[in-house]
Amino acid sequence: MEMLRIEGGTPLAGEVRASGAKNATLPVLAASLLLDEPLIIENVPHLEDVTTSNVLLAHMGVGVTMYDNMALAVDASTIVRCEAPYDLVKTMRASILVLGPLLARRGHADVSLPGGCAIGSRPVDIHLAGLEAMGAEITVEGGIIKARAGRLTGTRFAMESVTVTGTENLMMAATLADGDTVLENAAREPEVVDLAQCLVAMGAEIQGAGTSTIRIRGKSRLHGARHRVLPDRIETGTFLAAAVATKGIVTVSQTDPALLEATAEKLAATGARIESGSDWIRVDASAQRPRAVNIRTSPYPGFATDMQAQFCVIAAVANGTSSVTETVFENRFMHAAELERMGAMIRPEGNTLVITGQPTLTGAPVMATDLRASVSLVIAGIAASGTTDVRRVYHIDRGYECVEEKMAQLGAQIQRLPDKQPVGSTVAS
Ligand code: EPU
């Protein structure tokens, strides 16, 4: 086990490059299962979740070759096993993304049920209902989703609530179905659009990705393609939030500011100055302590739940009282108790945290519980005075590429150390 030790009190300053988006890479990797030719994926971030996906693909017999410059070639022509075992699914819920492609191309899939996770119960009932509407027969036996189908048939399916990976799973399945599929109440996240662009490069016919109605015309086969993953808007937003929490000046390059509207609006509401160009964005928060800001998470284009924990840190050091309301996940406030250990004043009220900003936080040993909670503790450690040890750092490695190198590049005093104290088992998020 490892931990991150941070000597806080330094405003972040400088420039850092955005990595490829984790939540776009994972579905694109799964999309390779629709092909019997290679898919070349560029701008792949070096993350634990990507490694887990590659292990899962390799378990199925898929060939994964790594090139320089963060590119992967994935060749599913050699697939021998259409299954995702519990050991892999339990460490990464996004493994459920293989269900739709396997079923569509191979007619069968055995995928372990993900179950609960650190941030809520997170069922996959909508994924399954959509596949059933396309003609699949699905049973759950011994914790394994067993899905069978001849060729899937196109259908009109309205998702009961907005689900990102659910939309992605069904969109992938529909590309090889017989006839047209219309997905209603679809997720509009940029990562859904990125996946659609990859599928179109593979020969799929898709309209409306990025809106709440997606139309897919099924094809009998798709072909090999090359796709470049879009920049990580959450990683970008994380560095910008860190700039505000530490009263710094940070530029993120090789990113897409157009994907960050809701985040940028709230960063500006703290009093920070925001500038951007076509592929960069800068926050200057050096002039004053951030102002309190109220946020409410919702599906895209609303304020991302994946940015909520980072904004809790801004609120914890802001001038005034902020409210942070989580509407997407039922249990995504585990960072609150850890931030309180660092001197944050937080009062939970149902799915809202009322946070009264303090002039300073103080370093403390804290425990990471999920990916975004972990990074919020890193930001808090950089903003605080004194030493913070962030333990269970494996959560952060799942979704942030070289986080300590990037933070150090911006001037943070941060190092990775061995952590000899025993900790519990991994939970997926
Ligand atoms: N939901 C259902 N039934 C379903 C599917 C979802 O009730 O069949 C509920 C969930 O329990 C949740 C809500 O719908 O309350 C939204 O969940 P969604 O399915 O949209 O989440 P996800 O697809 O599992 C993705 C990201 C998450 C991100 C959410 C919301 C990936 C691989 N994961 O998860 O990313 O928080 O969308 O934007 O794309 C992260 O990166 O830290 C992370 C957790």
Please provide the count of β strands.
24
- Portion of residues in beta strands equals 25-35%
First and last CA, distance: 19 Å
Q: Helical segment tally?
A: 14
Question: Fraction of residues in helices?
Answer: 25-40%
**Shape verdict:** elongated
What quaternary form is this? single chain
Structural class: alpha/beta
Uncertain stretches of 5 or more adjacent residues: none
What ligand species are in this complex? uridine-diphosphate-2(N-acetylglucosaminyl) butyric acid
What is the average of the pLDDT values? 95
Strand order of the largest sheet: 22-23-1-24
Largest sheet: 4 strands, mixed
Rg is 21 Å
Task: Throw out a few tags for this protein.
elongated, single chain, binds uridine-diphosphate-2(N-acetylglucosaminyl) butyric acid, 4-stranded mixed beta sheet, 429 residues, 31% helix, alpha/beta
Structure description:
The chain has 429 residues and is of the alpha/beta class. The protein is built from 14 helices and 24 strands. It has helices spanning 22-31, 48-59, 86-89, 99-106, 125-133, 164-175, 190-201, 233-245, 261-269, 308-317, 334-341, 371-383, 394-397, 403-409, and strands at residues 2-7, 13-17, 38-42, 63-67, 71-75, 83-84, 108-112, 137-141, 144-148, 156-158, 180-184, 205-207, 213-217, 225-228, 249-253, 273-276, 280-284, 295-296, 321-325, 345-349, 352-356, 365-367, 387-391, 413-418. The strands form six sheets. The chain has a four-stranded mixed β-sheet with strand order 22-23-1-24, with helices on one face. A four-stranded mixed β-sheet has the order 2-15-17-16. It has a four-stranded mixed β-sheet with strand order 4-5-3-14. β10 (156-158), α6 and β11 (180-184) form a beta-alpha-beta unit. α1 (22-31) packs parallel to α2, α8 runs parallel beside α10 and α11 packs parallel to α12. The protein starts with a strand and ends in an 11-residue tail after the last strand. 53% of the residues are buried. It binds uridine-diphosphate-2(N-acetylglucosaminyl) butyric acid.
